[in-house]
Structures are given as structure tokens and as C-alpha cells.
Specification:
Radius of gyration of chain C: 21 Å
Number of strands of chain C: 0
CATH class of the domain at 261-404 in chain A: Alpha Beta
Chains: A alpha/beta (404), B mainly alpha (79), C mainly alpha (365)
Largest interface: B-C, 40 and 41 residues
Oligomer: heterotrimer
Distance between the termini of chain C: 40 Å
CATH superfamily of the domain at 261-404 in chain A: Nutrient germinant receptor protein C, domain 3
Strand content of chain C: under 5%
CATH class of chain C: Mainly Alpha
Shape of chain C: globular
Number of strands of chain A: 15
Helix content of chain C: over 70%
Structural class of chain A: alpha/beta
Number of helices of chain A: 12
Largest sheet of chain A: 9 strands, mixed
CATH topology of the domain at 261-404 in chain A: GMP Synthetase, Chain A, domain 3
Chain lengths: 404, 79, 365
């Protein structure tokens, strides 16, 4: 008789002996090993990670092309840790799934998509076949909801073969650019979840991310930049939006989008000085009304700013000088916003800002009658813009005495 | 393979406990155990397994007309 | 199982919370149907759940020395009681199979697409059979240990979902159609508190019967608060259109949670907790199935039958709701109707018979 047979570890309503406890622990440990029997197990040495994917569509042949930027994790002692094997693999098929499966079957590794952050969609696919592409991206369990679908002019697959200015991996570079959007506010980073949610809305359009090719100023090579946006309306690609309009779009979107953005601009003050300031949005209030059955909107924005440079000796410690600068900044920003709003209303004629959502939520009764005529009503909506700028900071100097 | 294992396993379990329970003098329990295990084996039996009754089949047969009437005619609900 | 140990009223309340909170949160069908008006379904659910629970606890209190199966025999006569209990057993088996299939469907859709559903169901059924074998007391205590982790994980996740909120989920109000409200409310009730009758069969095992209703009423209220929170968090962070598109809206919501820049896939932890709580749901159902079946068929020694009934639940599930579409369609169009008799009519009938019996006893005095 072993002494441990008589030991009770803890007495609750059932005293459990140590022998039974140890037995249970061993059984649980054995059960854990059953996980190795699952056909879904992936061997680490067999996998390659896809960090960016591209989808093209050929209108003439009605075929899709799926390309993946694959990275093989390096774990042998002979290779340097920084030298990861990277390659682009591609295949065509009748549907995005067909093309992707063909590509995966030809690759010598088991491709894992869980780290894939970017889906680069060609302009052709966005114009002619965006529904099929988005259905595929949202239905597949392997593609994370937080990945970014981005539209690119021209072909998408050859963009994956471009290098980056920093020499880092393409997806890391693009992700860094998305993160650095807080410095310019001119990028759109819409996740698959937001894309599909807005995609299903019949009355409004939206702006998704865009990638452009740019020549480096240090060498002659071309590289990708995330800048501007692609307009999607009625589930099709409808046009491009440049960075300045995207900045205004971001400023008039949800708080989550603009709360971290700090952009710079050059302001011409009334006293003849020209100064640069960094603007940070503090508050946004969009208010809509109905007058005589017609919608009317007001937009109130509050910015805080800091003066970064001035072209003449203005004393930024003087409240009256600052007040003049604030007024100039407010007028400048109002003009900028009005210009972008006019572009969205009169040129694009697409409700990318989501005013229809506002009316459907806050004026649901009136929205029932407005809904069917929204396409004609939207371009005519008078939008009053009021911007207040508060220059809180002015840097480490007050002014530099200028030679007369 | 797995289905056959369950089929054979349930029959063996039924027979073993039928014998054991009979020995203990619990005839009714023994008969119920045999019938239950026979019913369980029926689900994985060759040929007849596909036609073996399930609650889903029973209630689909019983309630589908009522459901159709309530959802399509009464509520005009389409999902 | 032979030594029928008692549990406390608090343990029963926590068991009720764990029973409901785990299972229903994944699908949120009522949120898809009613969107901003989903509070109507939750309000109806609270009222109906409290009413139904009060009915069953009232009936039990009139016969403190009997369990609910014996009460049925006494009130309805032996054979009619057996018929009704058999109808309950069919509903219980239907629910267990639906629960097993829901878990295996979730895993094969989201995490393990190449693993056979039958293996997953078998593992799950083996665990729930073991849970039934070790008894109600152990199950209730295990639930007490798991729930704090679940609540902590859920609360932390909610805190991290709050920055993802981008839509006002409350506006516009009362825009859902009447059929959607009816179907959504019935759907939520069917999958949550219509199964309160199952807890009726456990009430005789509670030490202090008078405290059952207050304890479980709080559990019902807390469950509904939890369901409202996750419904509106999901609506506000996913968007109204995506909630309808997504098969598992709450899972999609928690997929957006990340700690810092790189720590993603937190949803795996919550999926683990959800799996365990759904196991509690199924284990309680299977435990009561075994209890009631033992009474209906007059089985004296239940121990050998525990494994057999576990096997029955497994094989029945492997032949039921094989397609995802079957599962969803059955859950919306057949299950609310098939639950009416055993889950609502049965307790109401017991209440009516109890009141009639009391009146007869008073008159005879």
C-alpha cells in the first residue's frame, strides 16, 4: 500500500486522491497529443508565408490572375537571419479561387495567408469584376478581415515584383506607409470588413486605398506608394481621388480615422507673412437638416495647430499676431474643404462622405422620400463649412530679427 | 472505418452489458440496454443506416407544412 | 451519478448563466434580423424567461420532496406523463445534436477545414459524456471555475472593441419589419430561455429551493445584459451590412481586436472559452436527458447507460444537420415550432394541473 494512495489533496464535496489527480493529468497530456492527428496540422518546415497578394482580371479572356508575394521563414543556421527567401508566384484561372488554387498547387511550399496584409486589385478587376473578388476575399476563412484591399492603376501582379526604397519586404514597407498616414492624412486604409460593409450600401459610394508607382528621388528605380484613393460606387470602380481630396475625406470621416492625423499646410496671412503649420483635428460635428423637403448640411471642424516656420519676423508671442494667423488658417482650410466637397458633389457626383447614412439614421422619415432621388439631390446639397483653428504652440523661437 | 467501429462497438457494448445486467438480476435494464445499443448500431449499419430515423427527419416531416404556412403566408417572411 | 449530491442555488444560477451565455453569442441571428431593434428581442426574452422560470419553480415548490419527473407522474398520470416526457426527450436530443453540430460546423468552417466533423463531434461527445458521468456537483463547480475566465476575457475584449466602434447602433429605431421582430424574438427565446424546463429537472437537487428563483432570475437578467452588450457592440463595430453578411458576427468582431500593433488572433482564446461553455450547455442537456430517460424507461442503475446515451447523442448528431444550410434553416423555421410543446406548453400544463390540484385540496378541506 503506497502512502500516496491515502493522500487527499483537497477536500471539497468529493475528496480527490493524488493518484487519481496524477492519472487524470497524464490522460489529459495524452489527449493533447491527439491534435497531431488532425489533417489540418502544418509542419513549420513546409510552410511559406504570403505577405501580399495581387488579383488581376483580363476582360478579353475573362480570366483571373492570382499572384502572391511569398516569404520562406529562414531557420537554418547557415543562412543569415535577415536574408529571407522571397519570391512571387502567379497563376491564372476562371475564378479568383481557381487561380489561387492553381498557384498554391504549383508552389513547393504550403502557403499560409494569415499574415497577408494587402490584396492589390487591378483597375480592370475593380471595374469589371469587383463583386466576385470581394465575395472571394470575404468568404475565405484564411484571409483576415483586417487585411487591406487596395486598387492599383494598370496591372496588379507586376507591382509585387517591385522593390522598396528601404530594401525591406514589400508588405512591411506598405504597412509602414499606412502607419505613417498620420503624417499626411492622404492615404485610405480600408479593411476588408469596412470595404464589404460599405460595398453593400446602395445609396453611397466610398473611397478605398490606392497604390501608385513613383520614381525615387535618390535613384532611378520605381517603387510603390500608398497615396490617394479609388472611388467605389454601386459595386464598381468609379474613379480616382488624389491625396488632397483624400485628406479632406479623412477629416470628415469617423473619429477613428482622423484622430491621429497631423498634416501640414502653408498659409498666407493677411499681413503678408507666409507660414507653415501642423494641424491636428480635435472635433468634428456634421449636422444635417431638411428644408422644404431638401437636405442641407453644416460641417463644424475644430483644429489645433502649431507654427512650424514663417517667412518673416512676426512675433508669434503676440496674441493679435496669432489671432490673425488663426483666421488665415481657418479661411484657408475652409476653402480647401469647400474645393474638395465641390469635387465630390459636382465632379464625382458620388456620396463618398456618407451623408445618406446620416439622413437614414437621424431623419429616417424624410429619408424614405429622399432615398429614391438621392442621386439627383446629393450634388445640390448646400454644405456650410465652419473651421476654427487654435494655434496652441509656436515652437522654440518667438521670431528671428530680419535685416531691413 | 470509423462508422464500422462505432457499429461493432455499440453492438458489443450492448451484448456485454445485457449479459452483465442479466447476471445481476436486472432483466428490464438488460433488455433496455440491448434495444438502445441496437438502435444506436442502426445509425451506422450498412444499407439501413441512411434511413434510420432522426429527430430532424421526424420534425421536418411534422412541422414543415405548419412552418411554411406561418413563415410564408402568415408572416411573409423570407430569409 | 448514483450519489445524487446537492448543489447550491448560486451554483445553479451560475450554471444557468454559463448554459446560455456560451452558445447563443456566436450566431446572433436576431441581430441580423432586427439590427437596431434587437433590444425588443432581448426584452421579450427576459420577460418570457422569467415567467417560464417562475412557473417551473412554483410547480417544484409545491412538491419539495419530489423531482420534476415524479411531479409529472403525480399531476398527469403515469402514461400521459411518459408521453410528454418522451416529447421532451426528443426535443432534448434535437438540441444536443444542434449544439454538437454548431460547434463542429464552426471549427470546420473557421479553423479546421480538413478535419472530419464526425471526429470533432466524437471528441466533444466523449467530453460531455464524461461530464455527465462525474456528476452534477462536479459540473457545477467546474462551471464556477470557468466563468470568471470567460467574463474577464469577454470584458477585456469589449474594452478593445470599443475603439473599433464606428456606427451608432441605436439609430434609426423601430425600422425593422414586424415579421422580422417576431421571428427574431422567437429565435432568441428558443435558443436561450425556452430550455429553462431542463433546469426544472435539476431543481430538486438544489439545497435551498426557496432561493432558486431569485438566484436564477439574476442569472437571466445578467445573461440578457450580456447578450445586449455583444449585439450592440457587434452592430456598431462591424456595420449593419456586414453583420448580416457574416456567418459568425461576434467572431468577426473579436477578430478585429489586437493588442498593440502585432498581437492579433486574440479570438482564438475566446473561441476556446466559448467551446468550453458550449460544452457546459451540452453536458447539462445530456445530464438531464439521462435523468429523464432513466425515469421514463424505469432504469434502476444508470451508470452503464451513461456511455450508451452519450453514444446515442454522438451517432444521432453525426446523421443530423449535415449541411450548414440544413442547420440554419432548421434553427429558424422548425426548431421554434418543435420547442413549443415540450418547452412552453408542458410547463404551462404542469402549472395548470398544480393549481387545479391545489384548489381540489382546498375544497376537500
Amino acid at each position: 500500500m503506497y502512502p500516496i494512495d491515502n493522500l487527499i489533496i483537497f477536500t471539497g464535496r468529493n475528496g480527490i486522491s493524488q493518484k487519481r489527480g496524477v492519472g487524470f493529468f497524464l490522460v489529459a497530456l495524452c489527449l493533447l497529443s491527439i491534435t497531431g492527428c488532425s489533417p489540418d496540422v502544418n509542419e513549420i518546415s513546409d510552410i511559406a508565408l504570403v505577405t501580399a497578394a495581387a488579383i488581376d482580371y483580363d476582360v478579353e479572356t475573362n480570366k483571373y490572375s492570382f499572384s502572391a508575394f511569398c516569404v520562406m521563414p529562414s531557420n537554418t543556421s547557415q543562412e543569415k537571419a535577415s536574408a529571407l527567401t522571397q519570391w512571387v508566384s502567379s497563376a491564372t484561372g476562371k475564378t479568383p479561387l481557381d487561380a489561387a488554387r492553381k498557384m498554391r498547387s504549383r508552389v513547393g511550399k504550403n502557403l499560409i495567408f494569415q499574415h497577408n496584409k494587402f490584396f492589390i486589385i487591378s483597375e480592370s478587376a475593380a471595374k469589371h469584376s469587383l463583386f466576385e473578388v470581394m465575395d472571394y476575399l470575404s468568404r475565405k476563412r484564411e484571409f483576415r478581415l483586417t487585411a487591406y484591399p487596395i486598387i492599383v492603376p494598370g496591372q496588379a501582379s507586376d507591382k509585387l515584383k517591385l522593390g522598396t526604397e528601404s530594401g525591406d519586404m514589400l508588405s512591411n514597407d506598405l504597412l509602414g506607409q499606412v502607419r505613417n498616414n498620420k503624417l499626411s492624412g492622404q492615404d485610405v486604409a480600408l479593411t476588408i470588413k469596412d470595404f464589404v460593409d460599405l460595398f453593400e450600401n446602395p445609396t453611397r459610394g466610398f473611397v478605398a486605398g490606392r497604390i501608385m508607382m513613383k520614381t525615387s528621388e535618390t535613384n532611378k528605380k520605381e517603387f510603390l506608394t500608398v497615396t490617394g484613393g479609388a472611388v467605389i460606387y454601386k459595386q464598381k470602380f468609379a474613379g480616382w481621388v488624389d491625396g488632397n481630396d483624400v485628406l479632406i475625406l479623412n477629416s470628415l470621416s469617423k473619429r477613428k480615422v482622423w484622430k491621429d492625423i497631423e498634416f501640414n499646410d502653408v498659409i498666407h496671412s493677411k499681413n503678408g507673412s507666409v507660414f507653415s503649420a501642423l494641424f491636428h483635428e480635435k472635433d468634428l460635428d456634421i449636422h444635417g437638416d431638411i428644408q422644404n423637403g431638401r437636405p442641407k448640411m453644416s460641417v463644424y471642424l475644430k483644429y489645433t495647430a502649431s507654427v512650424e516656420d514663417i517667412n518673416k519676423d512676426s512675433d508669434v508671442g503676440d496674441a493679435s499676431v496669432i489671432s490673425q494667423m488663426e483666421q488665415a488658417a481657418s479661411s484657408h482650410l475652409e476653402e480647401k474643404i469647400n474645393k474638395s466637397l465641390a469635387f465630390f458633389q459636382k465632379n464625382l457626383k458620388i456620396d463618398v462622405l456618407g451623408f445618406s447614412d446620416y439622413y437614414s439614421q437621424y431623419h429616417s422619415k424624410a429619408w424614405k422620400t429622399m432615398q429614391k432621388d438621392w442621386e439627383t439631390l446629393y450634388p445640390m446639397i448646400p454644405i456650410q463649412v465652419h473651421v476654427t483653428v487654435l494655434i496652441e504652440k509656436s515652437g522654440m523661437t518667438t521670431y528671428i530679427k530680419e535685416e531691413s | 472505418m470509423f462508422n464500422i467501429a462505432i457499429f461493432v462497438g455499440s453492438l458489443c457494448y450492448g451484448v456485454v452489458y445485457f449479459v452483465l445486467l442479466r447476471k445481476r438480476g436486472k432483466l428490464s435494464d438488460a433488455v433496455i440496454m440491448l434495444l438502445l445499443c441496437g438502435f444506436i448500431a442502426g445509425y451506422n449499419a450498412p444499407y439501413i443506416g441512411k434511413r434510420w430515423p432522426t429527430v430532424e427527419k421526424l420534425y421536418n416531416g411534422l412541422y414543415t407544412p405548419l412552418s411554411r404556412y406561418i413563415f410564408s403566408h402568415l408572416l411573409s417572411f423570407n430569409k | 451519478m448514483i450519489v445524487k449530491e446537492k448543489i447550491t442555488h448560486l451554483q445553479l444560477g451560475f450554471l444557468l448563466f454559463g448554459f446560455i451565455a456560451g452558445f447563443e453569442s456566436m450566431f446572433l441571428t436576431e441581430s441580423k434580423l432586427m439590427k437596431q431593434d434587437v433590444w425588443i428581442a432581448n426584452l421579450f426574452n427576459t420577460a418570457a424567461g422569467l415567467a417560464l422560470f417562475w412557473i417551473i419553480s412554483f410547480v417544484q415548490r409545491q412538491f419539495p420532496n419530489l423531482n420534476l419527473t415524479e411531479i409529472c407522474d403525480k399531476l398527469l398520470g403515469r402514461w400521459f406523463s411518459k408521453v410528454l416526457l418522451c416529447v421532451y426527450l426528443l426535443n432534448n436530443l434535437e438540441t444536443i445534436s444542434g449544439g454538437f453540430r454548431a460547434v463542429s460546423m464552426f471549427y470546420t468552417t473557421v479553423i479546421l477545414p480538413n478535419t472530419s466533423s464526425d471526429y470533432l463531434i466524437f471528441l466533444y461527445a466523449a467530453c460531455s459524456t464524461y461530464a455527465v458521468y462525474i456528476g452534477l456537483g462536479t459540473l457545477a463547480r467546474t462551471n464556477l471555475v470557468i466563468l470568471p475566465f470567460f467574463l474577464l476575457g469577454f470584458l477585456v475584449t469589449c474594452l478593445f472593441i470599443i475603439p473599433e466602434i464606428q456606427t451608432n447602433p441605436f439609430l434609426p429605431q423601430l425600422k425593422s419589419s414586424l415579421p422580422n421582430r417576431l421571428v427574431g424574438s422567437m429565435h432568441l427565446f428558443t435558443f436561450t430561455f425556452s430550455q429553462v424546463i431542463t433546469f426544472g429537472f435539476l431543481m430538486s437537487r438544489v439545497e435551498n429551493m426557496k432561493k432558486i428563483f431569485p438566484s436564477c432570475a439574476i442569472a437571466i437578467l445578467m445573461t440578457n445584459i450580456y447578450l445586449i452588450m455583444i449585439s450592440y457592440l457587434t452592430l456598431s463595430s462591424l456595420g449593419f451590412n456586414y453583420v448580416q453578411t457574416s456567418t459568425y458576427p461576434f467572431f468577426s468582431t473579436i477578430q478585429m481586436v489586437k493588442f498593440g500593433e502585432y498581437l492579433e488572433r486574440i479570438e482564438v482564446l475566446l473561441v476556446g472559452l466559448w467551446t468550453v461553455l458550449t460544452l457546459v450547455y451540452v453536458a447539462v442537456m445530456q445530464y438531464v436527458f439521462t435523468l429523464v430517460a432513466g425515469h421514463v424507461f424505469g432504469i434502476s442503475k444508470m451508470k452503464p447507460f451513461v456511455v450508451a446515451m452519450g453514444l446515442l447523442c454522438f451517432v444521432h448528431t453525426s446523421k443530423s444537420y449535415i449541411r450548414t444550410a440544413d442547420h440554419f434553416t432548421y434553427g429558424i423555421k422548425i426548431y421554434p415550432l418543435s420547442s413549443l410543446l415540450p418547452c412552453i406548453a408542458f410547463p404551462v400544463l404542469l402549472l395548470v394541473m398544480t393549481l387545479i390540484k391545489r384548489r381540489r385540496e382546498v375544497k376537500s378541506l
